[in-house]
């Protein structure tokens, strides 16, 4: 009874996440590499997708296809046009060692991103056309048109892949994790590292959002305290009043004024008695 109860015990969220990671991560790294042609970006895309899945685990856990949820997130991150602005992405990466892989990867990279994604989902992973259209956020006719154009481009560049079965086999072989005799990609870190990294990133963004909110509130309060609360009419510009002579101070003393000042200074102690105090 105890062994049966332990077997039937539900997995914890961390255990369920680790199981999904172990099941889907290796193949997703290779798929992201086919989409981007860059090994580091492929690993980064899968890591970010699983970090996002861990942040939204209640939503992912009840999804009818958790692996598809993570795959869509990884594809969206991998094909973001903002990666072109990164300095390290301006340097081309070395191609795969096998000639067949190089040719097919070169053709895939020449396709427009929506065509590339549609071809990988339909012929590489075997998704149905409605599912492919839903994951690429396109109508079914639009997805079918993208698929036909992508196949035509691949066939023109690699004639031996004209047959749908052969093209599907090669894409499935490239997108798989067991690639005997071919270059193996190093997968993303262990699931516990991905989970802790996602939690750390979430805390960092939360603190940044709080700091930004506090800054906005502080700026608003400062503006409210320093901004004028009533209308003040502007002062009229100064104007000269006509008919009034300008104010001026005393001018320089003339020669007569200087002589009079000297005379008064010399006679101040010898003047009339009314000007001198008498001691009695």
Automatic annotation (TrEMBL):
Pfam families: Sigma70_r4_2. GO terms for molecular function: DNA binding; sigma factor activity. SUPFAM superfamilies: Sigma2 domain of RNA polymerase sigma factors, Sigma3 and sigma4 domains of RNA polymerase sigma factors. Residues 102-152 form the RNA polymerase sigma factor 70 region 4 type domain. Residues 233-255 are annotated as: Disordered. The chain crosses the membrane at residues 204-224. Keywords: DNA-binding, Membrane, Sigma factor, Transcription, Transcription regulation, Transmembrane, Transmembrane helix. InterPro entries: RNA_pol_sigma-70-like, RNA_pol_sigma70_r4_t2, RNA_pol_sigma_r2, RNA_pol_sigma_r3/r4-like, WH-like_DNA-bd_sf. One of its GO terms (biological process) is DNA-templated transcription initiation. Belongs to the sigma-70 factor family. ECF subfamily. This is RNA polymerase sigma factor 70 region 4 type 2 domain-containing protein. The lineage of its organism: Bacteria, Bacillati, Actinomycetota, Actinomycetes, Kitasatosporales.
């Amino acid at each position: 009874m105890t062994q049966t109860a332990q077997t039937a015990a539900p997995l914890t969220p961390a255990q369920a996440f680790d199981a999904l990671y172990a099941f889907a991560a290796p193949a997703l790294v290779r798929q992201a590499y086919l989409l981007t042609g860059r090994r580091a970006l492929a690993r980064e895309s899968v890591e970010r997708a699983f970090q996002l899945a861990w942040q939204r685990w209640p939503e992912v856990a009840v999804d009818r296809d958790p692996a598809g949820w993570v795959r869509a997130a990884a594809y969206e991150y991998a094909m973001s046009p903002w990666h072109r602005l990164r300095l390290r992405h301006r340097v081309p990466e070395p191609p795969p060692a096998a000639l067949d892989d190089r040719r097919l990867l070169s053709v895939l990279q020449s396709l427009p991103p929506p065509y590339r994604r549609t071809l990988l989902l339909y012929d590489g992973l075997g998704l149905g056309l409605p599912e492919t259209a839903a994951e690429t956020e396109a109508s079914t006719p639009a997805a079918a048109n993208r698929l036909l154009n992508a196949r035509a481009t691949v066939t023109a560049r690699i004639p031996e892949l004209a047959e749908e079965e052969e093209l599907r086999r090669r894409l499935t072989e490239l997108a798989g994790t067991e690639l005997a005799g071919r270059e193996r990609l190093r997968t993303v870190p262990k699931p516990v590292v991905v989970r802790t990294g996602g939690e750390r990133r979430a805390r960092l963004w939360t603190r940044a959002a709080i700091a930004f909110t506090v800054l906005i509130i502080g700026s608003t309060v400062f503006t409210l305290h320093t901004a004028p609360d009533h209308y003040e009419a502007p002062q009229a510009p100064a104007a000269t009043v006509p008919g009034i002579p300008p104010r001026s101070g005393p001018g320089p003393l003339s020669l007569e004024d200087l002589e009079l000042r000297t005379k008064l200074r010399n006679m101040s102690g010898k003047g009339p008695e009314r000007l001198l105090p008498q001691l009695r």
